[in-house]
Amino acid sequence: MFRSTSRSLVKQSFALVAAALVAGCSGGGGGGSTPGPTPTPPPPLTPQTAHSADGFVDSIGINTHLGAIGSPYAQGAFGTIETLLVSLGVRHVRDSAYTAGSNASICSYENGLASKGIKFTFETAVTFGAPDILGWAACSGPALEIFESANEYDINHPQSQNATWPAVLRTYQQLLYTTVKGNASTASIPVLAPALTTGGAYTDLGNVQSYADYGNIHEGFDGFYPGTPGYGSGGYGSIPYEIAQAKPEAPNELFYVTEAAYSTAHVTNGGDLASQEKYVPRLLLDNFNAGLPRTYFYELLDEPNDGSIPPDLADGLCTVNLAPKPSYTALQSLIALLADPGATFTPGALAYGISGASSDVRETLLQKRSGDFYLAIWREASDFDPNALTDTPVTPENVTLLLAKAPAAASVYAYNSGESFVKTTVTPATTIPITVTDQVSVVDLSGL
To answer: Residue 30: its pLDDT value, please?
Structure first.
């Protein structure tokens, strides 16, 4: 996001210096008595405005199914699930709302999580009436953060079988919005438009932004890496494609990603443990760079709904037995490093550039309230071939971080074999060497 301008200036700088040196060496002839021209100093690096480090952390959510009886989310395991959520460090969970009077025990669990700083987006259904919406709001109490419209309604209501589904969904969206906004106790609660599954469905639904605070998309990468330019016609499967196809429902609003998945099922359109571990942090940073205010990863636990997929090799960050996968630990480490809760502040700017980087190097510049800058950097490349079902190793790349002034202190955080960050202190200077891999690394710069 911040890479192209800085790198262009760095290249211009090197070109100007090289040209000056060549000119100095080629002129004069007579024994070197005639001095060459003074080299032109490189132009200053362009300052780049950082985002809040805690703002990135706050953009991360996770899906659960706490009321899914017979699944790993069964209420008997809730104590362990609560520990997993709190330890992960996420503050936002997406789950289902229920009609008034049902699953009241779920509300008590969710209220307990709210006391630990975890709030919920509740997906609703077109069968809900105003009493159901307000009843669930009263039941969930402090756990309620966002109400969401019906989920992927177009899947079970294709126009070939039910040509009225767009009108039904539009009517429900209006009911949901006016009910929430028309009640004093819920008026401040944001309302999401529905997530649909195809561009055609979004077009059929049409513009509902008068009755939504945010649009809504789901991302499905079919095992391809999150920065893919697309694996189908017109960029199909890429992040820009998913945003563009959903625009008809909310042309002028930001979009939440309420589901974004990476499977560990070693089957076609799946992945493996290694690719999920690398892709999850990158996916969240890529979406953040794309201006998407929140991404809910799908999901916390594997659910063995498909008998063809081993129960411990599905979408979850944890297995069906509630054991963390490498992706859980990697995300946990990233959140722990960047979390910085507190009062709102305006991040500053940092003049920097990256020398020697290939075109797939990506960056996200963040800042904490302490003033420290945190530069997340990685190679956005494919680690797994979802068709051949083979890993595709990415070669590490040595680059140089160029700074307009030397920091007071500098360190680099990189993942170890246990998917936890390890800090390495480096010499604070205006040039800092970095090894960039397909895993996110973070450079911490103090005193700038």
So the answer is: 39
